[in-house]
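Reopening this ticket.

The earlier resolution said the output was attached, but the attachment link was broken on my side. Pasting everything inline this time so it's all in one place.
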Amino acid sequence: MKVFSNLISYLLHPLFIPIVGTIAYFLITPKYTPLEVRSANILPIFILTVIIPIVIFFILKNLRIVNSIFLETISERKYPLYIHISIILLILYKVIPNNYISELYFYFTGLLGAAMTCLLMLFFNIKTSLHVVGVSGLLMYLINLSIHFEINLIIAISIFVLLTGSVITARLYLKAHTKIELLTGLFIGLLSQLLTVRFWL
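Inline output:
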């Protein structure tokens, strides 16, 4: 069970949520999108949300600001969240506007709202599960896309319901979070994407 929990925690790390949502959009959308437009969104988003944060993580680890990729303490989470918010803002202002796609724009707006909420809660010494925030946000985004494009994504949604449950179970088993922290993360993840629906659905 410990091996499974660690595997789930790595595979569904919040680091991968922005790029997974981006790729999911291009796989799901029935709208024609030229290859150059897809590349112009996917490549910079991958670099900004995966490659750069990994490099920054090793820098922060060498500076002893963080100890683990899971950011176990409240103090460890602040700088990575500042950086994450800055990167999402960069994507919203520089990457997506070049090839404007409303569904992607408001997906990242939801991610920004979730990250800012998690950061704000840290100042009140409240830690939330970033894993659950990420995977539940992605689940709600898939539901939104299914309604928006009027296509059946029941298999994908069912898989992500299962994955969301698996992440919650894994983080609870590893004693990384309390039940309240996991439920708070679930609420933030779902609500952050749900609140953007009225602007593009």
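Reporter confirms the inline version is readable. The chain has a mean pLDDT of 91. The CA atoms of residues 146 and 152 lie 6 Å apart.
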